[in-house]
Amino acid sequence: MEAPKQETVTAPARAPAPAPLPKPPMVVMLPSPGMGHLIPMIEFAKRISLHQNLEIIFLIPTEGPPSKAQITVLQSLPNSISHTFLPPVSFTDLPPNTKIETYISLAVLRSLPSLRETFHSLSFFTRLDR
């Protein structure tokens, strides 16, 4: 009489964990201060984020705290779109009759050091193509 065969039970092989998805490319958008350019740029960002796999960040120059309207619009953005307010710039050196166009141009110009610093910080977390 033959000895009964012993069956060896093996645990099912575990499938390897899927590789993490690469981070999508990042697009940085720099609107001029105020709502006039911010809203159309946000609408554009929403459209391209729907059709492309992109991460979009708005870097917003300021001269003071953001308005309630800005906060409301920016808080309603989809997860693929984020924002950062750059530190406020000062206009104390300008005369009282300075035109709005000058304020807008100088807000962007005077935000350049903060903008450079923000780009430098982003480069640690995002692959930059050259």
Account of the protein in words:
Strands 1-2-3 form a three-stranded parallel β-sheet. The longest helix has 17 residues. The protein contains four helices and three strands, in the order βαβαβαα. Helix content is 38%, strand content 15%. The chain is elongated, with a radius of gyration of 25 Å. The protein is α/β, with parallel strands linked by helices and 130 residues long.
SSE topology sketch:
Layout: E1 26-29, H1 35-51, E2 55-62, H2 68-75, E3 81-88, H3 100-110, H4 112-125
Keywords: Glycosyltransferase, Transferase
GO molecular function: glycosyltransferase activity
Helix/strand-derived category reads alpha/beta
Kindly estimate the percentage of residues that lie in beta strands according to DSSP. 15-25%
**What's the pLDDT, averaged over the residues?**
85
The top level CATH class name:
Alpha Beta
Radius of gyration: 25 Å
CATH architecture: 3-Layer(aba) Sandwich
Please bin the fraction of helical residues: 25-40%
How many E-type strands? 3
- Low-confidence segments: none
Number of domains: 1
Molecular shape:
elongated
Strand order of the largest sheet: 1-2-3
Keywords: Glycosyltransferase, Transferase
GO molecular function: glycosyltransferase activity
